Amino acid sequence: MASKLASDVVRTGVAVIITDAEGKVLVGVRKGSHGAGTIQFPGGHLEKGEAIFDCAKRETLEETGLEVKDLKFVTITNDIFAAEDKHYITIFVSCRRVDEEQKPVIMEPEKCESWTWRSEAELRELMATEDGQKRLFLPIVNLFKDHESLSALL
Predict the structure, then answer these.
(1) Cβ partners under 8 Å of residue 10, min gap 6
(2) Which residues pair with residue 79 across a beta bridge?
(3) Does 154 fall in a domain?
(4) For residue 106, is it within any domain?
(5) Residue ranges of the Nudix hydrolase domain (predicted)?
(6) Hey, CA dihedral for 108, 67, 28, 143, is it positive or negative?
(7) Helix/strand/coil (H, E, C) string of 79-97?
(8) Is 21 a domain residue?
(9) What pairing do the DSSP bridges indicate for beta strands 10-18 and 25-30?
């Protein structure tokens, strides 16, 4: 049996929606991978044999230094990155920080240039224009297209 090329494989990503006391969500700017320069939630690839919530905890800790709790399934998006010839299913989970006062840290500077807290309204403003949509990572664009209110999902 011939092995498949990477572009023939549908990968699974896990995106972690962390909210603060004001209802803002943690987002970063991607570097060094597909979607470079776009705004993303913490997250990454689901590894073989790994539970979804374990992946969310691991990726969040690896990327931000934050420990999270109260994980909850939110939704799934089907994300086809045509220009990069990549296809992902993204599983969104929500959670809270174990220590609500702890600040995110850039743990992987080669993959993320910053972490900031943004409101859903701020992110949806970017969705209002085609250029703004290009500033959001495709799974977030699809999440917002599929759901009128992020806060209602959480």
Answers:
(1) 87, 88, 89
(2) 88
(3) no
(4) yes
(5) 9-140
(6) positive
(7) EEECCCCEEEEEEEEEEEE
(8) yes
(9) unpaired
- How many whole angstroms separate alpha carbon 13 and alpha carbon 139? 9
Q: What is the pLDDT of residues 29-81, one digit of tens each?
A: 999 888 889 999 999 999 999 999 999 999 999 999 999 999 999 999 999 99
DSSP string, 50-74: --HHHHHHHHHHHHH---EEEEEEE
- Can you read off the two tokens belonging to residue 104? 């995110």
Tell me the residue range of the domain where 37 lies.
9-149
**CA pair distance 25, 118, nearest whole angstrom:** 5
Are 68 and 57 spatial neighbours (Cβ–Cβ below 8 Å)?
yes
Q: Tell me, yes or no, whether 14 lies in a domain.
A: yes
User: Strand 10-18 relative to strand 43-45: parallel, antiparallel, unpaired?
Assistant: antiparallel
Is 0.90 surpassed by the pTM of this model?
yes
Domain count of the fold of the chain: 1
